[in-house]
Amino acid sequence: MIILKKAQLESIIDYARKNLPDEACGLLGGYIKNNERTVEKVFFLTNTDHSPEHFSMDPKEQFAAVKDMRKHGYALLGNFHSHPASPARPSVEDKRLAFDPSISYLILSLAEKDPVLKSFKIENKNSQEESITIL
């Protein structure tokens, strides 16, 4: 289970909308206790592909985010990206590029009027949805 504050969810939605028509992306840092992953900080990163169909995170921004996580004692909980015109489910490319089965992969769909956020665990190109709690 991944736990987000409502303000964090709203900031992810705002960031994704500001990046339209391209996909937006970022990292999530926080704490793991038992099987709960509590997000403490959302790191908004640049999609260097500038594409509505795929993303690559800026490497310098990724390193800075990980450095900040270490400074604050956070674990890398996962990443997020938006799907501007498709559902909140991992694409074939999302599954192919998911190298770490220990993290959460959040996908925000902006295809409908109301945004839809879902989280997945992905291992060996197989995905399983995990629950999200919004506080």
UniProtKB/TrEMBL annotation:
<dbReference type="InterPro" id="IPR037518">
    <property type="entry name" value="MPN"/>
</dbReference>
<dbReference type="GO" id="GO:0008235">
    <property type="term" value="F:metalloexopeptidase activity"/>
</dbReference>
<keyword id="KW-0862">Zinc</keyword>
<dbReference type="GO" id="GO:0006508">
    <property type="term" value="P:proteolysis"/>
</dbReference>
<dbReference type="InterPro" id="IPR028090">
    <property type="entry name" value="JAB_dom_prok"/>
</dbReference>
<keyword id="KW-0378">Hydrolase</keyword>
<dbReference type="GO" id="GO:0008270">
    <property type="term" value="F:zinc ion binding"/>
</dbReference>
<keyword id="KW-0645">Protease</keyword>
<keyword id="KW-0482">Metalloprotease</keyword>
<protein>
    <submittedName>
        <fullName>Proteasome lid subunit RPN8/RPN11</fullName>
    </submittedName>
</protein>
<dbReference type="InterPro" id="IPR000555">
    <property type="entry name" value="JAMM/MPN+_dom"/>
</dbReference>
<keyword id="KW-0647">Proteasome</keyword>
<feature type="domain" description="MPN">
    <location>
        <begin position="2"/>
        <end position="135"/>
    </location>
</feature>
<dbReference type="GO" id="GO:0000502">
    <property type="term" value="C:proteasome complex"/>
</dbReference>
<dbReference type="InterPro" id="IPR051929">
    <property type="entry name" value="VirAsm_ModProt"/>
</dbReference>
<keyword id="KW-0479">Metal-binding</keyword>
<dbReference type="Pfam" id="PF14464">
    <property type="entry name" value="Prok-JAB"/>
</dbReference>
